[in-house]
Amino acid sequence: MINDKIQIIRPDDFHLHVRSGEALKSVVPHTARQFARAIIMPNLATPVTTVDQAQSYRQAVLNAVSEDLDFEPLMTLYLTDKTSAEVIKAAKESSIIHALKLYPAGATTNSEAGVTDINNIYPALEAMQSVSLPLLVHGEVTDPLIDVFDRERVFIETILEPLIQRFPDLKIVMEHITTKEAVEFVTTTSNKVAATITVHHLLMNRNAIFTGGIRPHHYCLPVLKREEHRKALVEAAISGNPKFFLGTDSAPHPQSAKESACGCAGMYTAYNAMELYTEVFETAGALHRLEGFASIYGAKFYDLPQNKETLTLKRESWEIPASLSLGQAKVIPLRAGEKCQWKMINE
Fold first, then answer.
1. 160 pLDDT more than 60
2. DSSP letter string over 46-69?
């Protein structure tokens, strides 16, 4: 039987970048029209490392949401080598901080202030474990001698496995996983460990970076992997395993910054995220599993109440805009100028 319309509990995005200033005002509405809540990443040009900074950032996000939309930004703090147990305690007491993010220094956009040695943050991790604040990890090593396509696997082996042994009660989300090794690790390890999966890693393998020439808008970190890894991610997403849930990792960059001699990493998927996730699940014959992945499992892992509103998607072909406003600049959404086969509708 063909489903021409589906209705699910309103979903949440458990990994989102919205930047700051005019760019923020341009992109937050795209997320708020689909998602009830979103985990907001803290890697601004000036990293969000304190509760006061997070409160200001949260208010800026809320100011960008129209009054007719109910949207809650879930704030995070950026771990540095000097993050103290006192900062962790303040974060927990604030009630607005839902996790802390580990960026290995130099791993991705605005990660220069990140952690240079995992041993440096053991006091912070101990405090996080004691107050039940999750750790979100960008799971790649930064050693230039390690092949870029192997950095996630090596991170699991050398950083994540020992960390879990040392902090067995610490909740950990391995963000935007990209490999079959990550799927296997999350599946078989402690129930304290979960993972987010992006729609672009579900849709594309690394050939997409080079189809018809260099495709800078398909460059992201972690980078797209082989087809065998994409298939493993799809199987994880549609499995019904609550350890895997939605996180877009939508990352708005100006067109000029992407199409440059040293283009930046990240794909912009917030504009049409749920329509694209629906395509993935339909292609896999698993539309009945979309609601769990998008709307239930992440909230349970974060100990959040289930959303009461619903989201309706209709089978309808429509063209994704060639570009969107990003303040005074332009951002190119994933599948720009191409067709999408599902469309969100208001009911």
1. yes
2. S---SHHHHHHHHHHHHHTS-TT-
300: left (phi over 0), alpha (psi -120 to 50) or beta: alpha
> Where does 227-295 have alpha helices with state H?
227-237, 255-258, 273-283, 290-291
> Which residues are registered as beta bridge partners of 313?
6, 344
Given a cut of 50, whether residue 207 has pLDDT beyond it is: yes
Cite the beta strand spans of the chain per DSSP E.
Answer: 5-9, 12-16, 37-40, 72-78, 97-102, 135-137, 172-174, 193-197, 244-246, 310-319, 324-326, 329-331, 339-345
**Cα 272 from chain centroid (whole Å):** 15
Residue 196 pairs in a beta bridge with: 245
Can the peptide bond before residue 42 be classed as cis, meaning omega within 30 degrees of 0? no
Coil vs helix vs strand at 18: coil
Mean pLDDT, residues 117-135: 96
Task: Indicate the pLDDT class of residue 2, thresholds 50, 70 and 90.
Answer: low
CA distance 81 to 258: 30
Q: What is the mean pLDDT of residues 209-228?
A: 95
Q: What is the pLDDT of residues 233-242, one digit of tens each?
A: 999 999 999 9
Exposed/middle/buried for residue 123 (C-beta within 10 Å: 0-12, 13-18, 19+): middle
Q: Are 192 and 169 in contact (CB under 8 A)?
A: yes
pTM, to two decimals = 0.97
DSSP 8-state secondary structure symbol assigned to residue 268: B
Write out the catalytic residue numbers.
249
Q: What is the pLDDT of residue 1?
A: 44
Residue 234 CA, chain-centre distance (Å), reads: 16
Return the DSSP state at 223.
P
Rounded distance, CA 181 to CA 189, Å? 12
DSSP tag of 36:
S
pLDDT tens track for 34-76: 999 999 999 999 999 999 999 999 999 999 999 888 999 999 9
Rounded Cα distance, 161 and 163, in Å: 5
CB neighbours of residue 132 within 10 Å: 11
